[in-house]
Amino acid sequence: QVQLVESGGGLVQPGGSLRLSCTASGSAFRDYTMGWYRQAPGKQRELVASIGPIVSDPRTVYADSVKGRFTISRDNARNTMFLQMNSLRPEDSAVYYCNKLTPPRWDWGQGTQVTVSS
Known about the structure:
4-stranded antiparallel β-sheet; 10 strands; single chain; globular; 6-stranded mixed β-sheet
């Protein structure tokens, strides 16, 4: 079973930036399309962005709400995925998680809290 650890969240002002990281414990990470998800209080978890397994041909997809502001990337040699978040808005505040795009998913990590507030 792969374990996922998210990091990089924090408190940032509107318009600011954060870079999230997701590190997987096993090399199986490099075989799958991965996604960044987020869950705000009282809302369902939603997919923010996804990236295919091949670094040279990443096949990225973004939710309309983050398109042009967020960039997903991955480093298969380090079993790590990133989410560069720019021009952050209060509505981006949520706990961010990473996991496979399609089931069966691995156990969810603890997530990393992103709070966008002045």
